[in-house]
Amino acid sequence: MNTKLHAICDSQGRPLNLFVTAGQVSDYIGARALLNSIPNVEWLLGDRGYDADWFRDALKDKGIPACISERKQRKTPVKYDKRRYKRRNRIEIMFGRLKDWRRVATRYDRCPKVFLSAIALAATVIYWLWILTLGTSPDNLPKHLSFAQFADIFT
Q: What is the pTM of this model?
């Protein structure tokens, strides 16, 4: 039993959207599933697994510049901002926070829907803990904190 979690998170590393696929499925399936839920952002950061011409074109159609490193097998090199690409650690930190939950880290649930529900519960608690550390309610948050400046996609 192997699964892969695809996620969109904001600049603070808070998960916005989650999608679970089988572990042997290509990252393109997760990218296609999450494409319509990407908010209007300044740029999108993704890892090499999401390097596909159709995905870059879809992002360009939405007006979102992509910062995705090219796959090693790519014939034509693609330019990307290497300094921005180093910010991938934010999504890694988000996955690390999710794995602090033993149920998520060890995958107790056999059913993918129940597993995704456990991940969603953990993500909600992580978000609310972030709100509590600010010492304010979600209604009083400035708009620039409640919407993403950029989104990260990563497996």
A: 0.76
